[in-house]
Write a structure and sequence with these properties.
heterodimer, A: 343 residues, mainly alpha, two-stranded antiparallel ribbon, globular, B: 299 residues, alpha/beta, Rossmann fold, 3 domains, 6-stranded mixed sheet, 4-stranded antiparallel sheet, 14 helices, 10 strands
Chain lengths: 343, 299
């Protein structure tokens, strides 16, 4: 696509979206009212969750129901780190910078730990497919939750409280952008195409040299790592990590967002995550009927648009014209003259 | 010279059923070999044993001299065996280009993190893959379909796309599983020419499974005939065509009797058949109503 970019230009391009997002968000943050900030952060958390789950459920076609379990791993990992460093201040830095630095380390650590957890869970469960995989991932999600509930070091059923409030619009914005960029770059790469091939036809993918098990596990681990990031971010918003908030219902919510947006569509997941979070927030007025309205919304959407809001397309496809067929360097063998030249 | 593909006494047993026994085959680079036989003869089983869908229960499969028994299909693909499928198995929701690009993946060195950070290495590789994929599409005359979803392609082009995809893995041996299935006569003639040109152009060994005798006789230099898992004939198309055992396998012994063709002495065909068939049919075989028994077998 790009015409021979230099090494530096390539690196720059790789980090450009983050730089832009960082600047925009830093300006935006002080201007937002507090309620809008909280809604925006919740939207961001759900965007990270939905887009990352889409890598497994949409790109790879493997149905995972254990996303909340990975959120829990991320939340607890980061909570342990920020709590341990709550009173530590790096001497040579101002307090605010030092805190943010600790939080950044906590986020990175939670991604690493959750990615590892995803790898461990994925290895045995990804031998299964379809309904069986869904049940196994659901089981693993619950196992993670019950382990946390029964370990005193992790606060048991009460969880860990008193976390510092670190999540802000900048962090959430960067994370959401990072997740979308990850998904988009993956989709445009040979690794992503291998995942699509697994979704389309596993037997054929394997016959074309795709290590199907290996790629499934890797997709699962990447997806889990971003779920861990979302968990860490949400825990440092509500300043609390309890096992109760990472149950089956939470996993289901994310699955709903992915399906609603359209399996395999990154922008679809973003739109659905924003739509559902904001509408749930708007329904806060009549708390009891919230879930009823939510469920109705789903029923109506699935009846009218079963492929999801965007289907498998992307927003950016809408204004990109199809490329004219390139003239490849090798001429055709000429057995059938019907093919070429239709420029 | 090491054969591109070699099978030594390969056997495949499913429970009590011997689907393939003592199957020997050797393909040199640039050779075009046909594998034929009636329904249930073990052709596809032989194919699956080569491509790693099954691990052969006996014998050895060697690709370029390297033993590949029990390797996973993707590992065998990386070692140089590519295949197409009897019932087309394209990645239906991907474009023709992406179908081929998936197959170019086999040699890719860059990993997930290269993709996430768009490293120069990754970009270079993507460019290389794109170029290769375009090349293979052009070879198969599919450049005009580049960006179309593969499920929207007409049947003949889907077959060609499958071949393009298989070629893109960079194989030593290309295995075509009934490439002419569902094609009309003129498409078959076109296909024959195409298979030849692929062989000449890439210098790879081609193994074709086919039902259609005319196609396989017209295109292959050597033909192996299987019946009930046993190799009953092996030779040039001319030799095989005249072999009474082949005629018997395809047309039944009633035909042989009618034409007064003698089976060669020591032929192991009939006993094998008797052994692998239910008692009722064996009992029916010597009865005067042989045509009925034959018809049964052809179903």
């Amino acid at each position: 696509m790009t015409t021979a970019p230099g090494r530096a230009a390539g690196v720059l391009l790789g980090f450009l979206p983050f730089a832009v997002a960082l600047a925009a968000l830093a300006v935006l943050q002080p201007l937002l009212p507090p309620t809008a900030t909280i809604v925006l952060i919740n939207v961001g958390v759900n965007v990270v969750l939905a887009v990352s789950l889409n890598v497994v459920n949409g790109f790879t076609g493997q149905f995972s129901l254990g996303h909340a379990g990975f959120m829990a791993v991320g939340a607890y990992t980061s909570a342990k780190i920020t709590l341990a460093f709550a009173d530590v201040q790096l001497a040579f830095l101002p307090e605010a910078v030092s805190d943010q630095l600790v939080f950044a380390v906590a986020l990175a650590a939670s991604m690493a730990v959750t990615g590892l957890a995803g790898f461990v869970v994925g290895m045995p469960s990804l031998r299964l497919r379809g309904d069986y995989l869904a049940i196994v991932t659901l089981g693993f999600g619950e196992i993670i939750r019950s382990i946390i509930e029964n370990v005193a070091w992790l606060g048991g059923a009460l969880g860990l409280s008193g976390l510092p409030r670190r999540t802000n619009v900048v962090w959430i914005g960067i994370s959401a952008v990072a997740t979308v960029i990850m998904a988009r770059r993956l989709a445009g790469s040979t690794q992503g195409r291998a995942l699509f091939a697994i979704r389309e036809d596993e037997v054929a993918a394997e016959a074309m040299g795709v290590d199907t098990t290996g790629y499934k596990v890797r997709a699962f681990a990447i997806s889990a790592a971003y779920a861990g990031l979302a968990g860490a971010l949400s825990a440092h918003l509500i300043q609390l990590a309890t096992p109760g908030s990472y149950g089956f219902i939470r996993s289901m919510e994310v699955v709903v967002m992915v399906v609603l947006g359209g399996l395999g569509s990154i922008t679809g997941s973003v739109i659905a995550a924003a739509l559902l979070t904001i509408s749930l927030e708007g329904l806060r007025g009549f708390q009891e009927y919230r879930m009823v309205v939510y469920a109705l919304l789903l029923v109506v959407l699935m009846l009218t648009r079963p492929q999801g809001i965007l289907g498998s397309r992307e927003l950016w496809d809408l204004w990109r014209r199809p490329r004219p067929p390139a003239n490849p360097p090798l001429a055709s063998t000429g057995e059938d003259g019907n093919g070429e030249g239709a420029a | 010279m090491t054969p591109a593909l070699e099978l030594r006494a390969v056997g495949m047993t499913f429970g009590g059923l011997k689907a393939l026994s003592a199957f020997d085959l050797s393909l040199q680079a640039g050779e075009l070999v046909g594998l034929i036989g009636p329904n249930g003869a073990g052709k596809t089983t032989a194919f699956n044993a080569v491509t790693g869908v099954y691990a052969p229960t006996e014998g050895e499969v060697l690709v370029g001299g390297e033993r590949v028994n029990g390797l996973r299909p993707y590992q065998i693909c990386v070692r140089g065996v590519a295949r197409t499928f009897q019932n087309i198995r394209l990645f239906r929701e991907l474009s023709a280009l992406d179908n081929v690009r998936v197959a170019c993946h086999a040699g890719a060195k860059s990993g997930f993190f290269d993709a996430l950070f768009l490293t120069p290495h990754h970009r270079a590789e993507e460019r290389r893959i794109l170029g290769r994929a375009d090349e293979y599409l052009a070879v198969m005359g599919l450049s005009h379909r580049r960006d179309e979803l593969s499920r929207n392609l007409p049947y003949g082009e889907q077959r060609r796309l499958e071949i393009a995809r298989a070629l893109a893995t960079g194989p030593r041996v290309l295995c075509l599983d009934e490439p002419a299935a569902g094609m009309n006569a003129s498409e078959k003639v076109e296909l024959m020419a195409l298979i030849r040109s692929i062989r000449d152009r890439f210098g790879i060994a081609v193994l074709v499974i086919e039902h259609d005798m005319r196609l396989v006789m017209g295109v292959s230099e050597r033909v192996v005939v299987l019946d009930h898992g046993v190799t009953i004939a092996h030779g040039t198309p001319e030799e095989v065509r005249r072999d009474p055992r082949v005629i018997e396998a395809y047309l039944g012994d009633a035909y042989l009797e009618e034409r007064q063709i003698e089976l060669p002495p020591g032929s192991s065909v009939s006993p094998t058949r008797g052994a692998s068939f239910p008692a009722t049919i064996t009992a029916a075989a010597p009865s005067p109503n042989r045509a009925a028994a034959t018809r049964l077998r052809f179903e």
